[in-house]
Amino acid sequence: MHEISRQITLEAQQNGTEQLFLEDPLLFSEKLLEGRMKQFEDAKNCDAPVLFYDRGLGDVTAYLDYAGVDYPSEFKTICDAHLYDRVFVLPPWKDIYHSDNERYENFDQANEIFHYLKKAYKAYGYFAYQVPIGTIEERIAFILESTKDLH
C-alpha cells in the first residue's frame, strides 16, 4: 500500500497550505488516519500472500508525539484496533537520505522521529523488526525471512 502522506501534503499545497502537518498537525493526522484505515480495510480484499504498507497507523501518533502535539485518545484506540502481522522499521540512511517537497525533515530530525516510531510501535505491542542497511537484495531477503511464517 502506497504512502498517502505525500498525497495529503500535495493536496494541501494546491489549496495554499505549504506544510499541513506544520500548520495544522491534527487535521493532517486525521486525514492520515482516515486514509490508512481505508488501506487497512481495503487490504481485506487483497489476495496477495504478503501485503506491505509503506507507513502504518502507529506512525501517526509517533509523529504527533515527536512534535509534542496532544491528540484525542481515539487515535491510540484506532491504532490498537487495527493490528498488523509484522512491523518493519528502516532507520534513516545518511548516504541516501534527502529532503524534498513533502519530506521537509533533515537527517537529524529523521533520526529523532525514527526513535519515536520504534517507541510507538512498542507501545502498541509490536516487536519492530529493524531492517539492516544494505543492498536492496539483502533488505528484501531480511524481510522475506522475517515473514516466511505468514504465507
Number of continuous helical runs: 7
Estimated share of beta-strand residues: under 5%
Can you tell me the residue ranges where pLDDT is under 50 for at least 5 consecutive residues? none
The percentage helix is 40-55%
What is the CA-atom radius of gyration, in angstroms?
16 Å
Structure summary, number of beta strands: 2
Read across the widest sheet, the strand sequence of neighbours is 1-2
Mean pLDDT across residues: 92
Gist of the model:
The protein is mostly helical and 151 residues long.
What does the model show?
Helix content is 53%, strand content 4%. The model has no long low-confidence stretch (mean pLDDT 92). It is globular, with a radius of gyration of 16 Å. The protein has 7 helices and 2 strands; from the N terminus they run αααααβαβα. The chain has one domain. Strands 1-2 form a two-stranded parallel ribbon. Helix 4 packs across helix 6. With 151 residues, it is mainly alpha-helical. Strand 1, helix 6 and strand 2 form a beta-alpha-beta unit.
Task: Please name the defining characteristics of this protein.
151 residues; mainly alpha; two-stranded parallel sheet; 7 helices
Secondary structure layout plus pairing:
Blueprint: H1 5-14, H2 20-23, H3 25-42, H4 58-67, H5 73-81, E1 87-89, H6 107-123, E2 128-130, H7 136-147
Parallel strand pairs: 1-2
